[in-house]
Amino acid sequence: MPHAQAHAAHDSEERPLKPALLRGWRRRCPNCGSGPMLRGYLKVRDSCPVCGEALHHQRADDGPAYLTILIVGHLMAPLILWAFTHYRPDPLVLATVFSIGTVALSLYLLPRLKGAMVGMQWAKRMHGF
The whole model's pTM is what? Predict the structure, then answer.
């Protein structure tokens, strides 16, 4: 019985949100900040190779993709309008440049937003919903 009480007390400890979010953004373990959180591009590891924190139950589902689309869309739409009104480039040049920029920014943000979302889940003890 004392083990169950100790486990319950450990589960109720406050986990700071900001460090967990920053560690997740860097794609590091939200607990120790040293071990890699992701295996490959987007796959969350089963556990941290450094501290052993269980990560297998953390799921971000479509959240990072929605956030990526939201951020990239809100950045690119005004930039496209500004570039078109100020420079009047050829439509093919405009489409090519902004397509490459959109894909590059999306590929950069997606794993970082997934890491931050997993860090938030870890800090709030959501256990992948």
Answer: 0.86
